[in-house]
Amino acid sequence: MNTLKNKVAVITGANSGIGLATAKLFLENGAKVVLAGRRAEALTEATNQLTGDFTSFVGDVSNEEDNIRLIKTATDAYGKIDILYLNAGVAPVAPATDITAAHYTEVFDVNVKAPILTVKEALPQMNDGGSILFTTSIVSQKGFDGFGVYSASKGALRSFARVLTSEVKTRGIRVNSIAPGPIETPIYGKMGLPGEVVEELGKGFAQAVPLGRFGKAEEIAATALFLASDAASFINGVEIEVDGGLSQI
Ligand SMILES: NC(=O)c1ccc[n+]([C@@H]2O[C@H](COP(=O)([O-])OP(=O)(O)OC[C@H]3O[C@@H](n4cnc5c(N)ncnc54)[C@H](OP(=O)(O)O)[C@@H]3O)[C@@H](O)[C@H]2O)c1
Question: How far is the CA of 184 from the centre of ligand 1 (A)?
Fold first, then answer.
């Protein structure tokens, strides 16, 4: 359980779902973790469950100043960063006829601008040989009604990750993306849809997955641990689907 012993990890979107499960697993594996979240209360509630060497950060990662504060918080607490996991994201739903400029801005600000800004601030503070991870999504490979802007944002993030892989190669920093399928997390309650619609959506997703179920946040966390660790030392520039086979058949 010492896979990440003494490694310093910064995780965005760490007060909930995939980010929280990953923070927990990284701590269990000896990492020092900076958990970044937007809602202070949720962050406190989340960190109350954790043990290990961690620091909390409250801020909006789509804001430039907050990213500067985030990276300063990390370096003040632990020095240089080894693992940067850009995981924060939002998934409000709107069919093409209902998309507004505000919807577009919200989704692209959080899902694309934010990770780009965080990477920019973090890179000078990262150790050579480090690891950068993104949470993308299989939605950019399929066409799910209502997820137009969200899918486009995750496709944009995947493209950014490819360029970054090349730009940091001389420093030995590996850049990889995890594309989850449907994963049971609070994100479905934040989509702006009535409960019964979310339930129907969930049933449809679960039926479409070859393994016949939603994934668990812990299953994404296990993939993040693998990709961040030396076990994945020659894996670089990929996007790994963790989706029970949904994107493949
Ligand atoms: N669950 C799925 O089925 C699924 C599938 C594919 C991809 N994903 C991706 O997985 C990632 C994690 O989502 P999740 O499913 O674990 O959902 P979640 O539990 O809702 O987690 C999303 C996290 O992002 C944070 N966040 C959102 N906007 C932020 C901002 N502007 N600044 C800082 N933090 C912000 C949230 O904090 P607050 O709650 O405090 O706002 C929360 O911690 C997202 O990128 C999502 O797109 C999820």
Answer: 12
190, 88 contact by CB (below 8 A): no
Q: Answer yes or no: pTM beyond 0.85.
A: yes
Which pLDDT tens digit goes with each residue over 85-109?
999 999 999 999 999 999 999 999 9
DSSP string, 155-166: HHHHHHHHHHHH
Inter-residue contact 72 to 122 (CB < 8 Å): no
Do residues 185 and 137 touch, judged by C-beta distance below 8 A?
no
Spatial separation of the C-alpha atoms in residues 185 and 201, rounded to whole Å: 14
pLDDT digits (tens, 9 = 90+) for 18-56: 999 999 999 999 999 999 999 999 999 999 999 999 999
Integer angstrom CA distances of residue 140 from 20, 63, 108, 125: 24, 25, 14, 31
User: In Å, how far are 207, 215, 217, 223, 226 from 127, measured between CA atoms?
Assistant: 43, 32, 28, 22, 19
> How big is the CA angle at 167 (ends 166 and 168), to the nearest 5 degrees?
95
Which of 11, 20, 34, 38 best tests ligand 1's pocket when mutated (most atoms within 8 Å of CB)? 38
Q: Hey, how many other C-beta atoms are within 10 angstroms of the C-beta on 207?
A: 9
Q: What is the DSSP string of 19-34?
A: HHHHHHHHHHTT-EEE
Could you confirm whether 104 is annotated as catalytic? no
Q: What is the CATH number of domain 8-242?
A: 3.40.50.720
